Amino acid sequence: MLDDLDRRILRYLQAEPDMPLSDLAERAATTPSVASRRLSRMRSDGTIVSKTVLIDWAALGYEVEVSLRVTLDKTQPRAFDAFIDAARDVPEVIEIQTFLGRVDVRLSVVARDMADYQQVYRDRILTLPHIAEVEALMHVARIKTNAGVPI
pLDDT-derived band of residue 51, with 50, 70 and 90 as boundaries? Predict the structure, then answer.
């Protein structure tokens, strides 16, 4: 169970992951040694999974993002596993989500331009196993992105 101090530490750490431990402790109203022990515990119990670096893929020349809603051929016993294993190997697939319902999987795909996307779609996406149907949604704008959770 997280107490108020744990939540304060997480709130400040989430807002500024590179904050020095001394600053984090001061903002959370504790000592650096206590903050360090709390962080260690939350890492070991899985509350804090990792520190990550988010890269703006558009800054690297990827101008197109497409969300693909994929329905799989569920008559095949290992359709999900085979599809997901193969989709993981496509470098342009930056996110894979699974669902219950009519759509089984959603892939986020990035490409340098529309010609590049068409090539990726034909050569890498359509060759993935057990696809029954694909619906493409062209990304227009990102209105809100928040990797954090309300603490």
Answer: confident
- Residue 45 CB neighbours (<10 A): 9
- CATH code, residues 57-138: 3.30.70.920
Bridge partners (DSSP) of residue 69 are 106, 135
What's the rounded Cα separation, in Å, for the pair 110 and 49? 26
Q: Which CATH architecture has domain 4-44?
A: Orthogonal Bundle (1.10)
Tell me the whole-structure pTM to 2 decimals: 0.78
Nearest residue to 69 (alpha-carbon basis) of 131, 151, 145:
131
Burial of 110 (C-beta count, 10 Å sphere; 0-12/13-18/19+)? buried
